[in-house]
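Technical annex B. To support the medicinal chemistry partners, we prepared a structural model of the target in complex with protoporphyrin IX containing FE, based solely on the information shown next.
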Amino acid sequence: MTDTHPNGSPGAREAHGGGHGETSFLWKYVFSQDHKVIGIQYGITGLCFLFFGFTLMMLMRWQLAYPNQPLPWPWLAELLGNIRAPGGVLEAGFYNQLGAMHGTIMVFLGVVPIAVGAFGNYVVPLQIGAPDMAFPKLNMASYWVYFCGGVIMLASFFVPGGAASSGWTSYPPLSNIATQGQTWWLVGMVFLITSSLLGSVNFIVTIVQMRAPGLSMFRLPFFVWAQLVTAFLLLLAFPPLEAAGVLQLMDRVFGTSFFLPSGLVVNAIPYAQTTGYSGGGSALLWQHLFWFLAHPEVYVLILPAMGIVAEIVANNTRKPLWGYRLLVYAAIFLGFMSFIVWAHHMFMTGMGTVMSTFFQTTTMIISIPSVIILTCMILSLWGGSIRFSIPMLFALAFLPMFAIGGLTGLPLGLTLSDLHLHDTYYVIGHFHYVVAPGTIMALFAGIYYWYPKVTGRKMSGLLGHLHFWPTLILMNSIFMPMFFMGMAGLNRRMYDQTVYVHGRGVQPLSLMVSWSAWMLAVAQIPFIINFFKSWKAGEKVNDNPWEATTLEWAAPSPPPHGNFTTLPEVHRGPYEYSVPGQSGDFCPQHARPDSASEGTPSAPPVPAAH
Amino acid sequence: MDPVKFGYWFPADVSTHGPSVDLLIDYVHYLAVALFVGWGIFMLYCLIRFRQRPGHKAQYELPHFKGSKYAEVAVALIELVLLLGFSIPVWASIRYELPRTDAPDKVVVRCIAEQFAWYFWYPGPDGEFEPASADRIKPSNPLGLRDPSRDAVSKDEFHFPVNRPIVVYVTSRDVIHGFNIPLMRVKHDAVPGLNIPIWFQATKTNDEIFAAMSPERLRIGPALVGRKEPYIAMEAVKAADGSDLLKSGDTFVFGEALVKGLTGAGVQELSVKLKFPVELACAQLCGNGHSGMRAAVSIDTEEQFAAFIAGKMAK
Ligand code: HEM
Ligand SMILES: [Cu+2]
Ligand SMILES: [Cu+2]
């Protein structure tokens, strides 16, 4: 794995030699095959979906804070209409639609597209010194298939009965007997999965085949490794869910019984009488297929975030990462293990002792590489010269937030303690600490960090601070109370938690969560302003404003079609900061070593003006 | 018994196995907090000591941290102990050991969930469950028993005797539900097509729990209309016209008229106790009525339980 490949597959090279970029606006910005444009498309679309998914949640939080009270604004009730909000009060079925679609949109239309589609697409080819992805047309197809999937999901809100309402997990038989929206959800998922599969093949081939000369596997930035492992997870885990989705579609549309056991009685009438279904299927089969994807999916959500954080930590401590190889091995091991822990989501379904012993053991084992990754990143701070730039603040915040998310997974991974916590708000708190204060913070870090590469301008530091501090505090005041609510026994997916006496006991926390969530929306205003204003009016910076070492900074900002003015050659590892005996405190991967001493490089070649 | 409160940590526990569940949760959190504090202090220290400032330089040579290796090995060992010492054996015993042995005093109940109700089905004096068939289901025979008069069936009210092992066969006849009694640390999915036994044993009766429970101040509002669960008033309330709305000690259910009356009398909060303080909640999303899919749990004395069964048989 350590030898280097000649840069690029001939096909991809020719595509760029021929130059297909200079045509009309439509082909340049809409149906583009350039990985950078596609990355930006993914990023903007993903951010919109993230905001939309968050809006759904803000609506739900009204009902949870003020159960069965009309929405505060009449125009909002009017907008939702009488079916969704009769008398201004959110209807229970609509609440379930919001819940199911929040989860689906956040995971499959928001975070993954940003973490993989946007950052992966934009940064990976640059970091490996490639002119583009290996299969540019596949890349474009991947975006547009994703886009169609998103449109289908959005459209499903307007079909009779509304959108899918059986949770983002869509457990049968509930999902089988649900309204039409569920069929749309399944079709949408088939699109989204297809898109991810197209993308993952592309990433794997690109990273394996198109690295710059000299860029051996162990000189790859950790971000690229994270994307590589992620691509394998997507490639191997999604097909079972795609198959399962098609089976559920068959059940719903053609009356098969893959997930329907015999003898169902719905509304006190034998289901066979009303539908003529045959039965003989298994409701749990879906759960196995679903979680076989959805557990690796958790690592799809977190690995790219770790990659982003690793880049930013190395850059802002001005020293090499501590334990780079250990990090790589841990990420690979994590990826592998993530395929054999899935049934810890099913401890309460009645599996035997042997099965549950196996799955709790693998779950405890998988916590070890996570601890290693976190430890490496924290130890990397030691001996640094730490620069508190905006990206670094977000990256630093990621570490303790991810730690909370990871540590609270332990009691859920042991069957005995899971007995009390399973399906409660504790679970919601746990995985949100991983994906919201964790991954989302890392995604913000990445946006602030690579923004100058994409636009040639820096985002404002003042607005950055105004964004960071409230966001950090509010993320915690949203998700920390959830642990206490879950500990008190409050179940998740509840339309009205005051039904139970233990739910009433924690109702004040629910108010705190809701108000924090609404304030979190306000706290994003500085980011939105910053994001758009800096595009044209941000401070102009040079090609390498963070004085970083990896290859993306060798390209002009923004990189032209084909990325590099001269394709770089790589001479060293990814994080050669503060090398002793050198004048500057960083030594880019592509800087030529001075003939005799590895020590002082010649000045990094400044790319031609753009 | 200790006072029963509903706050921000574990709810009270009235089962025999509950303490070991809570203990493990506590232990795991000790480990988590220790790690988090350790990491946190180290991280803050680094952020301060190694901040960028004039004259300070990063060091290229990576220090060799022995501590991290020890910490990782320690974490692995602690996890191993929690796994082998607690989770696996205790889980095995609470999930599987009892239903197989023939405890003479055990009570066997079948629980059948449907959207959005819980049925508890007890064998009659013959100790046998009647055969059931979906074709016979009608309002007077909700489980479709061959001879409904030979068994006891209770809807949304789960009675069982204290201090005896209770074996419940949990199933569902439509979608997946979750059989969950937080105060007893009992949770199991009710999956259609599967009929899986779980068991537990209570240590306190309903009356003891009721006595130890502090009254709650319930917010009066539209959310209460249509609630089925009975409450006991802890204070007297007079209506706007001076008549008695509630007397202290009254058992009542919130209806539209009562809520209107209370609101009319300007009552914002009412001091009450749940008549059945132990609740059975649905833990799996099962449709629009999921959050209201609740059953009362009554932990009876032997006499109370016998009377309950007799009453159900008489119907
Ligand atoms: C930062 C803003 C966010 C807030 C305030 C928020 C809040 C919530 C809440 C309160 C629930 C529980 C609903 C219930 O149990 O009824 C929930 C569910 C969920 N959230 Fe989020 N969330 C946020 C971001 C995210 C992100 C970034 C993701 C994914 C990457 C995500 C994925 C999910 C999923 C999958 C569920 C469904 C859990 C279930 O089915 O029980 N959320 N969210
Ligand atoms: Cu249910
Ligand atoms: Cu339910």
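Notes passed to the chemistry partners:
Confidence is low (pLDDT under 50) at residues 1-21, 595-610 of chain A.
Residues 92-127 of chain A form the longest helix (36 residues).
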